Structure formats: structure tokens, C-alpha cells
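PROTOCOL LOG
Step 1. Enter all chains and additional molecules of the complex.
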Amino acid sequence: MDFSIPTQTQEILDRVRQFVADELYPLERQAAGRTFRELVPRLHEKRDLVRRLGFWQPQIPRAHGGMGLGFLEHALVSEQLAYSPYGHYVFGAQAPDAGNMEILLEFGTPGQRQRWLQPLLAGTARSCFSMTEPDRPGSNPVWLETTAVQEGDQYVINGHKWFTTAADGAAFAIVMAVTNPDAPPHLRASQIIVPTDAAGFQLVRNIPCMGHAGDDWASHGEIVYDQVRVPVENRLGEEGAGFAIAQSRLGPGRIHHCMRWIGIAQRSLELMCQRAIARELAPGQPLADQQTVQNWIAESQAEITAARLMVLDAGWKIDHIGARAARVEISAIKFHAARVMLEVVDRAIQAHGALGVTDDTVLQYFYRHERSARIYDGPDEVHKRVVARQLLKRHGYRRR
Amino acid sequence: MDFSIPTQTQEILDRVRQFVADELYPLERQAAGRTFRELVPRLHEKRDLVRRLGFWQPQIPRAHGGMGLGFLEHALVSEQLAYSPYGHYVFGAQAPDAGNMEILLEFGTPGQRQRWLQPLLAGTARSCFSMTEPDRPGSNPVWLETTAVQEGDQYVINGHKWFTTAADGAAFAIVMAVTNPDAPPHLRASQIIVPTDAAGFQLVRNIPCMGHAGDDWASHGEIVYDQVRVPVENRLGEEGAGFAIAQSRLGPGRIHHCMRWIGIAQRSLELMCQRAIARELAPGQPLADQQTVQNWIAESQAEITAARLMVLDAGWKIDHIGARAARVEISAIKFHAARVMLEVVDRAIQAHGALGVTDDTVLQYFYRHERSARIYDGPDEVHKRVVARQLLKRHGYRRR
Amino acid sequence: MDFSIPTQTQEILDRVRQFVADELYPLERQAAGRTFRELVPRLHEKRDLVRRLGFWQPQIPRAHGGMGLGFLEHALVSEQLAYSPYGHYVFGAQAPDAGNMEILLEFGTPGQRQRWLQPLLAGTARSCFSMTEPDRPGSNPVWLETTAVQEGDQYVINGHKWFTTAADGAAFAIVMAVTNPDAPPHLRASQIIVPTDAAGFQLVRNIPCMGHAGDDWASHGEIVYDQVRVPVENRLGEEGAGFAIAQSRLGPGRIHHCMRWIGIAQRSLELMCQRAIARELAPGQPLADQQTVQNWIAESQAEITAARLMVLDAGWKIDHIGARAARVEISAIKFHAARVMLEVVDRAIQAHGALGVTDDTVLQYFYRHERSARIYDGPDEVHKRVVARQLLKRHGYRRR
Amino acid sequence: MDFSIPTQTQEILDRVRQFVADELYPLERQAAGRTFRELVPRLHEKRDLVRRLGFWQPQIPRAHGGMGLGFLEHALVSEQLAYSPYGHYVFGAQAPDAGNMEILLEFGTPGQRQRWLQPLLAGTARSCFSMTEPDRPGSNPVWLETTAVQEGDQYVINGHKWFTTAADGAAFAIVMAVTNPDAPPHLRASQIIVPTDAAGFQLVRNIPCMGHAGDDWASHGEIVYDQVRVPVENRLGEEGAGFAIAQSRLGPGRIHHCMRWIGIAQRSLELMCQRAIARELAPGQPLADQQTVQNWIAESQAEITAARLMVLDAGWKIDHIGARAARVEISAIKFHAARVMLEVVDRAIQAHGALGVTDDTVLQYFYRHERSARIYDGPDEVHKRVVARQLLKRHGYRRR
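Step 2. Run joint prediction.
Step 3. Record the structure below.
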């Protein structure tokens, strides 16, 4: 056992943290009341800085222009990036592009990589991942309505998707559609690349969430696929391999989500401490002396530390024993880390008083945007079931 | 002891509930993406309907054109109004006007009533209450920076306020300002009526909260009072009576806030039940059959029932033994009911899955807007201290 | 609505409270390390005092020698009695005798009353209620193994029961046994009076619970019924009416249990306040000044107040609209009040520090003995299901 | 970073676990209703087995007859031992002897080691540590009443202690007493060895806790030191070094406590899983299929995993950067791990229904005995303050 972080990695983390604090925190207040599109030029200036520092796309192999960090190293960087809502975007590690890049790197043909991956690596285009359906629960991912029927050398895609994050302005979507309706449930769907300018691809709306429709990268699209035709060569991997591909990204993707949440919790705790010191309840009586606030700080620190180690341990296991063997861990961190994050954010808001609900701090952004952490990617309830069933199995339980 | 609601009151409640469901629920989705100002014409049409039904201003004496309901009756109506974010506005019972009307009715001179109260009763003007200051904690309400210095027959007011709810478009503000800086803390401030068109009254901004600046009634103003001059006759009550007046409205105002929260919790529970029935996790397997969702429903029902009775009991005590004797109850309901509401809203969102964070239901509105319930009007922490100190006192404790 | 307690009732409550504090609190420390049987003589001396004050058996009609209190009045008295673990016993209102007396009063024949009820009313004998079975979950009360087969004018009873409270030293048990195995589930069992000296009645052991087997009234018996023969006339009510009779006592019994828990919580809060005042963390720095302890006191006060009103409201509803119509309330108070009690007890222990786990206060007794409140009489989970299903039904849900 | 456990260590852990399950679990039910003294012969038989396996005193250097495990290795063994309440005792690693052995090894003179340490290493004598005082809060350890006044070459000790664990039957106590009342608070006390047969050493009582006075090793003594005289050479280390010595053992001792709690939580989770599988709610409907129970299992698994890593990380830090630098971690694990353990135990009891409160499982023992984990060694509240103050300090806070 060794809980230390190598000096070299620590140096990267320190520099990333400094960059995020110096360059990205100031954007937060500028963002208030602006569309994301209005922010993009400034974000791309920051991207140039990131490239100059050699930090562009930490998760991507050097051969493809990234930093080539190891899996856990990137997880630690991801934590630092999450201190700002713009961190991942500015470093070229933002969802859903990061996941799509990984899929294309692992499962893409040379032709697919050339056409669809290159612009993502360069940061000149964006993409989206189109899986969730309004009439089908995310807790049952094999139950899909969208179909892709092969006609000649084309797929004809019909379906209704939503929460296709960042569809607005994306160059293409990777669509999960049923190609083999008669196969066993996990072998029914395929992942197919659909350019967003294909006929029949209709971005119905950016779904208003928590009071905002959002725009550009910062949006969740509702999409109708109405007789959309794409060449069969746009399919990723074998026909029916859609879930297998999705599964293969699940473990690593989970770690990055969770480290992002840990980063958000850390930032919130930082803000809570700063506020406790700065705010006086009466002359000479800082908030920091209130025992209740001290309890919040201490409990947050303990819960973040514990959750963080749990996520790193799960990541280490994925790396060393594989995602399948780490199934319990991968589900456990999902519901546990999300809860810890949301509780810390909530405490930080309370410690800020009225200021906490204003856009003058980033806390309300975390409060609104990250509530969905307990829902997307499988709600808490699904992951608890997974963990429980695995444990019961280890104790000899067989479902009837 | 009698826990029954008189038949006549129950009839009113049923009719109000029906009205809210039929006329106001449909407005919720129309509101998404619109400013409040854009909604106002529709809301005023609904007000006309309310007047025709004889439900206008339930809390106002008949002599002044209201329904003349008793205190607890109005509390029960308030619960029903809260099922929709527009209920109180449409029935003419919205904060801060409702509170200001009560102050003017109780402490206003005939002239003040004529000039400032009449338009509020008629619904032709709005008002605001300007107390909270950015650099002074709400937990210490006697520590104010804003001053009103008498010069001749005028007050000259200087100060910086925020969270002056609904200042945007208001005809006047009731401002809390220090008039007697050398008096004991609770006798330093007065309440003074300031027309918003007075020279030096600057609405700096509608404070962006939870991602929205809001507008019109649905906003919280930051205001600078810069050498604002008003006639001395604009003062409400005696000089130095500002806190006494505020205190006198605190108990009743608390009941209405809390019953509003109970109504919000009830609506959220209603939505949770409806969703549980409508949503299937797999064919023939409704969400309602999930034990976790059943737990949420049952716990919400129990907590709402308990909190609701606690609020009604506190209201009954204010009515029968007076607000001073009911101090413990008035503080206890503040933190208890707010917590219950927020937990129920949170569970309802979780039960809705992805839909729960969209603007397609009202839940996300409650989630964002009502987080401040644990902060305004004294944060949880202050009210817990009040309750504890009173109880300790009853056990013989004297602070040193 | 009227939340007041009649003056006359309040006087009774005050006198009962005083009696409990003066006469029963001192017994608590004497009880440490003693068997219950050793305490009995002292408890019976106290019973004499109670009789002299006219407080004997508050729940029993005057015609039968009790105080003849109304249902809610007795609930309020029950709260006061619960401040001491000996309150109910000393006032002749202890489970399971109180429930058995009510069953005999309502369903007993004159002969049954004469023989079995009279000694309970006089306090010269005790009884027990034998329902729970080790191999059958309490959450499914219609699934029983114990049978009573009629042979001639006798029932032959065979079965295995446990948690037959107070069997040790009881004169008789009321046994729930299947008499009609082919009837629909709710019509299968009957309640039959079995004298404990009947051949084949074997008290296997007093079940050690939380480290103590207990004895006499303060015990839970494991009993084997091995070919026990009793006359058919020992049956209470019609054959197959066992559940109907049990159900009829459920609502009122629930109120008394819950008010007992409220009383326990109140006593614990009282002890917490007293300790906070008496204990110093440093010279001149009482525990009462710690904000965390103040939070505990305030939250406990709020939660007890809310839960208490909820129980009283449920009791009022049983009285005025009947137990069937109050089904949701009767289940909701079970899990809600038990949770509140246990949390308050836990906080009180924490506030006492090391003293809190010693037998020098009654808190550890509550902690150990009342943990089962969340289990007996249907665990939390069952009652949550009942509440949820009823609510879902009101929203139109029909189970498939 | 490396989260793996070396194969060799894992083998030891597996064998220890097997031993505990095979040899010690069966003792649990035998223990019910017996004094500890009655169990001792059986426990000492098990000790012989342990010695034969080469597992005696895992924490003690080989030169002194132990296994000579490294710090973290022993922490992992300690987790396994805690699956049974008898694990530590049987392996010779039980508090308070383990701590006293460490003190004597590190600070004892050759003479002290010869006389007092040897019998502990051999398992032929027991000892106790006498620090806590009834009239002084454990949260303020430098505020002690007990004094040791030097007269000639003797100390004369006077004072009143309690919660001197295992005093009953111990050969000696290490007593914390004020020797230098005029020194700064942290330099006032010394640790002095007092044989329990010294004149004036009065074991007043084994303090009844949670209904049991306990006896022998399984007891907490209340002790009066009345003019007890011991030679000055019985002092450990320098005069006034009492706290420094206590501090030096605090970090390592904390890890062992916390790993013990983790083991208890693991055992409870194991029992919960086994019960869920074995128990049927209706024919063919095991408890394991209940979603609520699955939630408990999953949440327990997640919380235990997170807390466990947190404790191991703190241990690793003590080993690598020192206890002083790991102060935040050492305090954070105290309140966090204790809470997690108690919640898991509570859930396991609930999953067992009525069985859960009986002595037929070990859960009720954990429930009663381990409640004090949140109190001894500094209550939660003290450790939260420590964590908060350190964090605030890192953010620049200086107390006034």
C-alpha cells in the first residue's frame, strides 16, 4: 500500500490548480447572464494558454497530441479541473467529447478516426452522445425505442432522444440505436455516427433545465431522428456491439465523473472556509468561530477525503484488476460521491447566507447543475441495487 | 383538542385548490423562458377571475375589500395557494405586499393608508421592504448601516440594501434605517416609506440568484440610497419603533411562510405520486412498485403531516396566547418546516429522474427558489439558538 | 381547530408528572443491577399511592374501577407516565395487560371477564399476548404456524412463539392460533385464552435481549405450546375473528405506544438540558453554551413537538372518523415517532459524554430497550409500505 | 499510488479471519449470560492455539515474542480481529494492555520493562490506564484533578478516576496525575505506574454501563486514589511528560481503534447479507429481494469502503509523514469511522427484525458496547473542532 502521489504528478497538479484559480475563476462572474456562446472566444484564448503550457488534453496519448497521462494521473488532474465549471472544457477534456474521443481511439476505423476524431483532438469541432430516451428509463438502458434499419449500404434511423448533451453546435452525434431487435437484450443496439447536418436530424430544443435552456456546449438537446440515413460504415465496431462499447467506457468514465465531483466538493469547501473567515456576525466575531460552521467544515473534509480515496481505489482497481472485477466499486462510488458532493455544496451555500444563493459565487451553479449527478448515468437506486446484488451473490445468494 | 376544519372553511379550501389546479398549473409551463413581466397580463386576467369568485385578498378585512378570513383560516388558504408559484400573487396575498399591507393597516396614519395602502389593496401598485444589507448578517438584524438623519421636516437616507424583494417596478419601499444611533440596539431604527421615484433611490441591479436576475415582482433588488429625502411624515409609527413593528409582523408572517412551504411540499408529494404511477421501469413495472419510492412517499407524507400540524399549532398559539409566549414555536417551525419542504422537493426530483431537473415540471423551480427558505428571515442556525436558549432558560439556565 | 388542553385534564397531567418525578425517578438508580422481581414490592407500594390519589388505571372505565379517561386524555397521561420506565406499570396501564384488558372488556363473555379480567383490574395477576413466531416475519402477521385444532369441546394447541412479553409470571396468555386453515388469510386465526399452568405450556426461556434475559413483567418469553388443551369457551369472539380483534385494538394501541415514545423523548430532552446546564467544559464554560448542543436541543424540541401533534391528531381521528379512515395516520406515526424518539435519546447520550453510557442515567435504558420500537408491531418498512400504497391509491393507482 | 495488499500480508489476514470465524464466533453465544471471568479459561485455550499458529501479539516486535508486523499490517490484522468481540483479547492485542505495552516499550526503563512489561507480553497479567475523571470533561484532557505530590523518593497520589477500563483484576494502572501544577497546561501531568495492591488504591465499582457492570477485563473501573504511595522510579519518562507520552501513542492508537470499528462494521454487514438471504417474508420471497434492504447493504458497503481507506491513508501518513503532520486525518477518522460503524450496526439490527435485539446475534453487543465510540478518546465534537481549526488555519485564519 502506498498513498503517495509521485512528485512529478504533484507538480502537474499544482500547476493545473494554479492555472484554474488564476485564469478560470475570474470567468465565473463574467459568465453570469451571458450565453455560453458569448463566452467561447474567451475560453478559446484560455485553451491557447493551456496548449502553450503543454497541458492540452491530458487524457489523450502524446502520439495524438495530448499529455499522455496515465489513468489515475488524469483522474487527479480531472479533480483539479473541476474546481471551475470551465476547467474540463478549457483543457480539452470535457464530456461528452472526451468519451467520444476514447471510443473513436479504441473502436474507430482509420477512416472514422480521420474524419471524426481529428477535429475533436484539434478542438475545432464538438460532438455529442445520443442515448437517453424520454419514454424509456435510464435505469434500464437496454430498453430502447430508437431503431436503425439497414437498407442497402445505409442505416435508416428513427427515434426520439433527449439529454443529448452539447448537441447544439456539435458536428456529429454517436447514436445508440437498435439494429438487431431479435437478439438478446444486450446485443440489440449499435453505436452509429450521425452528422448533425444529416437530413432528418432535428434538434427540437435545448431542454430547459433548472430554469435555463443553455446553449452550445452547455446544453442538453432533445432530438428527433426522422428517417435519418447514414452509410453503414458509420457504425462503430460490430453490429450489436453498442452496449459492449458503452460498457467498456463506463468504468473509466465513472472515475472521471466522480473525480470531477470531488473537485467540486473541494472547491465548495474552500469557499466555505474563506467565507467563514471573512464574514463577521458581529464586530470581531467571525463566522469561523461558530461551532456549527466548524462542524460543516470538519464533516465535509472527512466525507470528501473518504469519498476521494474510494474513487481513487476504484480507479486503481480498474487499472489493475479490470472494470469487471471492480463492478461493486464502480457502482458504489457513483451514488456515494454524488451524495457527498451535493451535501458539501449545500453546506457551503448555507455558510454563505444570502450570498450563497446569488450568482456572485459559483456555489449556486454547482447546486443547480450537479443535482443531476444523482440521476444521469444510472440513478442512485440502480447502483445501489448493483452493489447489493453483487454482495449478496458473494454470500451465496441466487435470485429465483 | 379539536383537529377538525370547519365545513365552511373546507369548502373554501377545496374551491381554492381547484382554482389553483385548473387555472394556475397550466401557467407553469408557459412561464418557462419568459420574463415575469411577460406573464403579468395573464396573471391579471386570473386575478379578475379570483375577484369574481370573491377570493381576492383572503387575509384582508372585508371592510377593505378582502375575504376577511381569520388568521388560521388564511394560513390554510395560504397552503393551497402555494401549490403554484403564482397562487399568492394571483390572490393578492403575495409577499412583500401582504406584509406591507398589514403594517400599513396596523401602524399607518389615515394619510399613509390613503396614499400607499389603497393601491396595494386595489392591486394597481406593488411595494417592497428594504431591510437586509450586504455587509451585515441577517442573523443580527439590529446591526444596520443605513441611516436616516432628520433635517428639518425631512429624513435624509443613506445606505446600501440588497434582497429587497420585488423592488423592480415597486411604487415604494418601506426602508429600515437607523434614526437613533445612540439608543439601545432595538430602539435605533425606524421604518420609513420611500417612493421609488425619489431622487437618490438607485436600483443597482436585480441580483442574479440561482442563475436568474429575475424581473418585476419576481426579483430581489440591490439598492443604494444616496441622500434620499422623504418627509418625516413618511415614518411608520414612533421614531425608533422600526424593530417593534417588524417584530409584531414576525409571528403571523412566519406562519404564512411556513404554510407556503407546506403547500410546496404537498404539491411535490402529489407530483411524486403521479410520476410513480405513470412511469414504467419495464413493461408492466411501474415506479410505484419500487420500495425506495414508496419509502420516499411515506416519509414525505409523515414529515409533511407532522410539520403542518406544528405550524398550525404555532399559529393557533399566536392567536390565543400571543406571539411572545409562542416564541419557541415560531422559531422551531422556521427551521423545521423549511428542511422538510426541501427534502420532499429533493425526493420528488429524484423520483422524476431526468425529467425532474427539466423545466417540464415545477419541481426544479421549487428546488432553486426555495433553497433560500433556510436562509432568509434568519438562517436555521439563528432559530435553533433561539429555541435552545428558551428551553435552557426554562430549565433554570442564566447566561453569564 | 383547537390545540388547547382542557384545564381539568391539564391538572391531571401536572399531578401525574409530579408523581412520576417525585416517586418514580428515584427508583431508576435503585433498579440498576436488580431483577425486576426484586423491585416489585417497591412498585406495588407506589401502586397503593396511585390508588389513593385516584389515578389507578386511567384508561379503564370508572365502573370497572379505573379513572375513565377519554381516549385522548389517556394518551396525554400515557406521555407523562413514559417519563419513567415504571410509570405504566405503577399506574396499571402497562402493556400487554392494558391491551388484554381492553380485549376482554370488548370481546369477553361475562364468564371470561369474571375469571380473567377481574384479577388484571385488581392488579393481582398479570397476562401476556402470544402472537409473534420466530420462523414467521412480523411483517406478515397472517402467516402463522401455531394451530388450534378442535377436539370435542377443547382446542389442542401446538406452536412455537417468542417475544411473548411478560409471560414469566403471567397467569394466562392470549394466544393467536390458526383454527380455520382453509379460510381466507385474514379469517384463519382465533384468539384463545391459555392459562400458563396448562399442561404443555412451556416457557422455554426469557429471551436475552440487549444483554439481559430480564424477568417477571420485564421479559420476553419464548414459548412452546405442545398439545396444550383448553376448553373451547376460552376462545375470544367468533372462530376466525383473531385478526379482526387484533385489528380493532391496533389503532388505540398504536396511539399509546407512540405517546409513550414521545414521553421518553421528552424526558431525554429534559435530561439533555439539565446536563448542558450542569456540566462545565472549562471553568465558567457550561456545555449549554456549545452551539452543537444547542442545535441538538432545538432540533429535538422541534421534532418532538411535530411528532407529538401528529400522534394526537391520529388519535383524534381514530376517535372521530374511525381507525379505518385513519389508516395512513396510524401507520405514519409508528415509524415517524419511533425514529424521533431514538434520535433524541441518542443526542441526549452524546450530550452526557461518558456518563451517558452508564447506568447512572436512564438514557442507556431507553437506548437499549426502545431500539425495538422500530421493529415490533410491524417494522418501519411495513408501515411505510402501507402509507405509500394508500397515498398511491388516492392518486388512482391500482396494483396489478 | 498503490492500493494493493502484499500477498504475504493477505495470507496472514485470510488465516486470521478463518481463525476468528472458526474459533471465536462460537464463543459469542456461549458468552450470553456468563461473566467474563467464566469465559477466561476458554479464551486462554484459544490463546494457546494462537501462539501455536505464530499469531501471538501481532503488534509486538519479534524480539519480544510478537509477530513483529509493520504498523499498517497490524492495522489490517486488527480489522480482522474485530469481527469478534474476543479477537483482540485472544491475540494479545487488546486495549488497554496493547497501549500500555507500547508505552513501556518506548518509554520504560529496563527495570520498568522487566517488572511491568514482561507479564503483559507473556499474557500472565493485565493492566489498565487511569486518566478520565468524572468531574472533568474528556474534551479538555489537560484539566485534571488528580495530583501526585513528591515526598522524599515517593509520589503521594490523590484523585478520583473513572472509565479506567479493565481495572478489575489488573496488576497495575498507569495513572495520569498532576505533578507540576504551576507548569503550562500541557506540562503539568506525569504518567505513573501504580500497582493495584498499593494501599489506598480503591476500586469503588465496575461502572454499570448499558445495563451491565461487567467484570474482569470487560469492565470500566471507578477508582479512588487515596494517599497512594509509589516510588518515584515508577514515573514513566520525565516529570511533566505525561501528555507528551499520551500524545505519542494517540495517532497509532487511533488507527487501531478505527480499524477495529471497521471490522465491526464489516461483520455487521456480513450478518446483514446472511440474514437477508436466509429470511423469508413469504414463501419464496427472501428479505434479500427487498429494495430497502438492498439499499442498506449498498450504502453500508460504500460507507465502510470509504471510511476504511480513510483510516488506512491516515495510518500510512502517520508512518510516512508523522502524526503531527497527519493531525487532521487522525481527528477526521475518529468521528467519521465511529459514525459509519454505528449506522451499519443499526441497519443490520433492523434487517434482523426481532432477532436483531436478542442476544442470539452479536449485533446487540456491538450496539450497546460501541455507542461509546463516539464519546471516549474525545467526543465527535472535539475532533470536528480540531479538523475545522486546522483547515481554517490553512486558509489563513488566526483566532483572536
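Step 4. Note key features.
Chain D has twelve helices and eleven strands.
Chain D has three domains: 7-108, 127-236, 243-394.
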